[in-house]
Queue: 3 jobs
Job 1
Amino acid sequence: MPDRGPGPWGEADQRAEADQRVGLSELLARATDRVPLDGAPGKSGAEMERLMIDGQPYVLKRLDLARDWTLRASGCLPGPPLVLWQRGILDRLPGCINQPIVAVAGYAPASPRPSGGCLLLMRDVSPWLVPATDAAITEGQHTRFLRHMAELHAAFWGCGRECDVVPAMHRYLELSPWLAKAELAIGSEHLVPSLVAKGWPLLADVAPAAAAVVTPLAYDPSPLVAALDATPHTLVHSNWKLDNLGTDESGRTILLDWEQPGRGAALSDLAWYLAINCRRLPQSKEASIEYYRESLEAQGIETGPWWERQLALCLLGALVQFGWEKALGGYDEELAWWEAKSIQAAPLLVS
């Protein structure tokens, strides 16, 4: 891999961005039939439009720092997909992953406010995405997602600094009370930050035992991040929600929304998947966890020495990320399960 300088904005990165902008500009110059996708799933503030290039359908996505709260929360202000693209990480994904991005370039719209971000041109894979409904997915698709997640993690096992894009600390702060306060301070009207603001105070009333463990970590996740640093790491996608997933005609997993990736604990992806998709999964959490473990071991990764510790910490981490959302649903079997796992993991935190 060529030297890209110290961090995402080294001299080589800037040259690469210039080359990519030319390529993206040339593609967009041939675009026709451009139509905004106002009703597309997603709550980040990103803008998307469908277009045709040489008779083939594509989607253009704008990650604008002034509009996209997830981009602000990531701390990677040029846009994580741009950094992944510049470093060649997307080209190293295993064959089981269908990653539809074909061009990325920096985006700096004329604005009196500080801004930035990037433009992503993607193949239109909408026919193969999981439908945005409340129905459970099939067990076959579910286990395929877990198997391909394990293959992705195995491909980057023990990865180096090139995978440091969004830090683990930022990922655990993405849905924190700090996010809600920051977005309120700038007059943001996005739905998710407003729900985060409502949900975190509610957790103490709905599930006080869970709140006693996770609310302090939602404000300061450093004890959790430090504990996870002592376990193995890989490249994590960090948003395996069903809205970002699909299965193409070849049986590959479509994986969208590379906007919080970085080096981290593999089981943080698994825990996120179980937490955010809980109402639509056809298999129990325990069975899903075991299937993922078997899939990772099938890739040659030994799990014995570290598994229980990382699993406990990552399940706790999922409630640090989603305690607000679980509280909005009231105290039910779902929240009770996560509460128990969080209490069990608390002694593993680094003080």
Note: Residues 11-128 form one domain.
Job 2
Amino acid sequence: MSSTPGHGSTPSRAKEAIVGTGLSQRQVAKAIGIDETKLSKALSGQRRFTADELLGLATSTGVTVRWLLGDESQVSAAPESLAPEAQNLTDVEGLTAAEATPRRHIVEVAWNLFSRHGYDSVRIADIAETAGVSSASVHYHFTNKSELFAATLDYSVKLAFDRQIAWLDGIDDPKHRLERLLELQSPIGQTAHREWSIWLQTWARLALEDGGSTEYPASYERWSRTVRSTIEDGQAEGLFRRGDSAAMADELTSLLDGLGVKVLTGVMDPGTFRIRLQTYLTRSIIRTQPEEESQ
């Protein structure tokens, strides 16, 4: 899939997202990794944003891909708390991304450090130094390190759902959509690996008596509903086995979690991960022969 079908609202919403950041089109184009001319053409409706460009635009501006597409995707959305920062800036051309969106910049830096080194090993001073701000600036936006870690979890959730929406939009076949959905949620690749690191640390903290409250259970439930709805679509079209879709989604996501932890910790290689996952789909989800339901 090289590009998304696109929606009429995408160019106007993309413009709105860019203006909201206080960054110039040149800076956003650089963040996305495309030529400014390509960005201008996409903003004017002369070309469509590719899936990767939508992801880059959503990440660099702080909005969600679903919002860019006009809230029409069937894939779950990220938490509503992940809204772009309100800006009241004048000299936008001279601003860096960190200056235009300081809170989000701190979150992205913290996300990178927490995912690489772990919550306990990273200090507020480390985050401030890497972000190029003072510790007081970090505390201005976040009361403590735990609150900042919660924000990095929200950021991980946003990245995951943005990726799903950008790459699943337009895939109508339930079988292909489910396979792609699981691939996008797998801990393969640097970004996904770091998302999983944040999630795994969250699971460990939730297992403790003083783990505290978090929005993660609700986020996980949204992910489970996405898998369940995809299974139900496949059942309706006769592509998937009949059965309790909730139980099937629970088993499948649990398998993905377990295999993902093995990959994350180096116990299993990505190739074996893919084989195990596909074998389960073939054995328990995908209907390979029309008559197999009556056997």
Note: The CA atoms of residues 204 and 210 lie 11 Å apart.
Job 3
Amino acid sequence: MKAISVLGSTGSIGTQTLEIVEEFPEQFRVVALSAGRNLSLFTEQIKRHQPEAIALADESLLPEISERLTQVSLEDSSFKIPKIFGGPSGIEVVASWDHSDLVVTGIVGCAGLLPTLAAIKAGKDLALANKETLIAAGPVVLPELKKSGSRLLPADSEHSAIFQCLQGTPWAENARLSTGVPTPGLRRILLTASGGAFRDWSAKDLEKATVSDATSHPNWSMGRKITVDSATLMNKGLEVIEAHYLFGIDYDQIEIVIHPQSIIHSMIELSDTSVLAQLGWPDMKLPILYCLSWPCRFETPWSRLNLAEVGELSFKAPDTKKYPCMELAFTAGRTGGTMPAVLNASNEEAVSQFLQEKIHFLDIPQIIEVVCDLHRQDLVKEPSLADVLNVDKWSRMKVQEIVKKGTTRMKI
């Protein structure tokens, strides 16, 4: 039985992970959980899975969670109150919990970086759903992976698809996982993109885009931030940078293709021109389960793919004018150093401002580009963790300054 810690247990990745644990009670058990502010759901998760340790990001909520769990123990004498931690340091304790075999990193954004590093330093294997860890701090994370022997198992559907396609190739034996070693025999990665909420909109129509429009994904059920990233296609640009670090492949060998049906989750081309693809319904449970069960595969009762029902699989090249965030990501990745951290942080903050309706949808790429350009003179080519954290903070403040001044797309 594999012991699992889940970071961000009340979010989309976390809740689906716990559903899988419940479906396979003889294979997995939960030993540690962390969450943000959703105390009702968190209390229910703790009651159901009875972990050894828990952590809340918001330390002010510790008295309330303690009170809730005390009440649970009074109602159920078999319930044992777990050890309780709070704040960023508390989440790092949960991430590096001694009895855990695998850590699922479901915390969104750069907030997941330090807990992920704590898990790596503790020698834990990770189901990596927090792509920002590699995007913002790839040059910091890779040496730590080599030092600790931890393995990053990609939980994103696209990188899981690539990972699955690579099983049985020379990469599986030689490059292992997330060491930045070039992948033998791998010529090209094709990242598929649904096209997001605006895939059927013209570039001109984006002037009318609202928060409600941008957070309504046609295929996937995801959190608001990542759904907006899908609408701008920044999520695909970020995945390009992540793929570069995960599989040791050059940016010129990574392509993005629009695939509206979201059935093919990504493809690889090998040196002999053979192209391998991983297919499945658009459901995050499958890549999460593969992370938890790897190198095994478990039989599931889930709905099986019916290609006749799908009917057709179509593809087209992405419109770079409609989706400028893609090129911003490629440029940041090729620049390297601290630039991907700036890209990631400025995107997170710009999306946050958009979700608060302080800026327009079209302001997002413009603001990101301005912040990245401002950073060029201070670029650090071989950053430390402190450098990454400093530019992350600087980027967010710079976006806030731009928004406060009202320097939106009409004025930048």
Note: The chain has three domains: 2-150, 155-334, 336-412.
